[in-house]
Design brief:
This protein is an alpha+beta fold. Helix content is about 25%, strand content about 25%. The protein contains 8 helices and 14 strands.
Amino acid sequence: MKELPKSLTIIGAGYIGLETATIFNEFGVKVRVVEMMDRILPTMEPRLSGKLRALLDPNIEIILNARVEEIKKYDGKYEVIYTQHEIKKTVKSDLVLMAIGRKPVVPQRTQEIGINVKEGKIIVNNALQTNIPHIYAPGDVNGASMLFHSAVRQSLVAANNIMAGNHPIDYMNFDAVPTTVFTFPKIAYVGLMPSIAKEKCVELVETDYQFKVDSRAQIFDEMEGEIREFFDVRTMRLVGAWVVGIDADNLIGELGIAIANGLNVKDIAEFANQHPMSSEGISKAARKLL
């Protein structure tokens, strides 16, 4: 691409589609996002995706419940034909981006040598071993956490266990891997989310810190959004968190470390986060529960 298009249609409202949508929108491109499901970020926590939807620039047109049937090109433009509520519709644009997700690329003949593969993913334990103990599968091929930083940690787990003679001494904590959606504004989350907790019959108590009262957010005039923390009601350990808005990508790291190390509400509340930094909200949110 050598120059910006005047219009762009993105198929898929996952994190790749939305990140691209907000970037091109900032450049002044007319952006439409066409999503088959009934909400953006359909694989993520519904409440969290709803918060992002409310904060996205309204200039980005989001079309939900729309199944793309065909893409045609003529006169240098593209026509996307989709069905929405059983009605066939079309949108035209200069370019179309397919952003309907990713899947693991499992090496050919993996199953033929006896490695367990289910739903296109290599099955591993927390030591990153397959069912054949001296064969490891870190990274995207296991589908557990398809993120670069997760793959780096997984590869270290595998290497440490290989060096220990395939007797596991290191384990991957998939529950403490943070995820950030680099949209404008950003959102990030880590650990157990409310909808999954409900499925697992885990009772949560939650607390929040709104950026409208945050000094750093006020300085940068980015006061929309929040920090929200989820504690297991039985132990009051932090098991999940999300951040919507300013510094989300940085704040989620501190919350992930807290989850990985089993910190409880008292541990977090007693930490002296710096002022004037948005990280103050992490301890302030926890203090609301004491």
